[in-house]
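Problem: given the chain below (112 residues), write out its structure.
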Amino acid sequence: MKEIKAIIRPNKLPPLRDALRQIDGFPGMTVSKAEGCTAPSRHGAVRNIKDELTDYTPKVRIEIVVPDELAEVIFECIVRIAQTGHIGDGLVWITEVERAAFVFKTMPAERG
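Solution.
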């Protein structure tokens, strides 16, 4: 199994969600709000304290755990949909998952 994580622009989430839902076997995803900034070397040095404190831009963090055979398809879909061609589009990466289980079954009540 693999875990795909992505940090993308918030406006790219709706078209990404629609594209991912079209993939057979798409297991769903976790989405959370995030903030980020690029490295100073990519857009120039921070000039003053105000720039330093307001340099963060809203992002969305996506996490998806998938079988190995779906990882590359989903990874490529995220990259294709999320890119605008500008600095700050985001980042997508894949890591190995040793073990995962869905937590949806109810456990029997303890008797006492």
